[in-house]
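residues and backbone:
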Amino acid sequence: MLALLSLGVVMVHSAGLSVGDGRAISLEAFLLSKPTMYMALAMVALAAGSTLPIRRMLESPSVSRGPAWLLIAAFCLCLLVYVPALAREVNGAKRWVGVNLPGLGMVSFQPSETAKWASVAFVAWFGVWRGEGIRRLVGGLGLGLAPIAAIAGLILLEDLGTAVLIGAVAGLVLLAAGVRWAYVIALAPVGLAVVAVGILAEPYRMRRLAAFVDPYADPAGSGYHAIQSMAAVAGGDVFGRGLGFGIRKFGYVPEDQTDFIFAIIAEELGVAGAGLIVALMLTLLWAGWTIAVREESRAMRLFAFGVVATIGVQATINLAAVTGLGPTKGIALPLVSSGGTGWILTAAALGVLVGMDRRRALEECAREIPADEP
């Protein structure tokens, strides 16, 4: 995680370079920049997450506590993007909430990030709470997906990618909890129909889908993102143009610090740098999976699987969009794309896995030490 964040900070700064703005590049400016501060906060969140009593929350026997309330709180936060005094609109999308704080200026966060992780906690808890009832259609899969569908439907109005991510991860965790495959397959067309309606309801989503099929049909319009991104990836060759020497970030690749940061990495660091990012991401997922399969608590095991699935599916969607293997989508590369809310909450979720691994190691040590030894 630290390696991915470090590369993310460096590449966000590189992607943010501009020509002739009069600003000098200095170590002080680098260390005091927002990305560096977000990275420091992410490491604090990692440490804090490792101490959270999440096991007690997930194993609560009462339906009126814990993750259920957490999901309700996340839903209420997502509603704030429609409050005029708080909503921040970026590129026509209302995905952020901003508040002016004395001495800090505008501080914003993305409520859908809280919904993403609250959903993971909810389905992990639900899988344990329902027990054998999870294998039923209405009282199992239907009951578990209903609140997830509500919050994903709200997010879908502004952010289709995150809504699909939440729904997909919830389905995977519920399958791991014991839901029948036949029920998931039977309900899959309903989910696909909702996604199709979400695409048809917004003309720009239809244009993106058409651009995925043939980006050169409208190279200056809907296909521009995909063409410029693929040109940046191709321009890096094996070892890249060199850190800071990319040219596509100068007004060519849109959202080069966020959704398309991987294109800048590929151009400046080449296949070698892009491969390093993928290798680090796979190593992170492998480590998380190892922790999940070793965990004895069923609720914690499901939560760990949900964390791994969320990061893995999100990274796959982002990389597919950047490399032209999928339609362009406004979804970040975890721990690399610029974004304070995403970095901090992802780090906190990974911190829970760190705490799980540490607790298991301490328990193993305790079993190996004879009872009569001090």
Q: What stands out?
A: Strands lie at 87-90, 93-101, 105-109. The first strand starts at residue 87 and ends at 90. The mean pLDDT is 86.
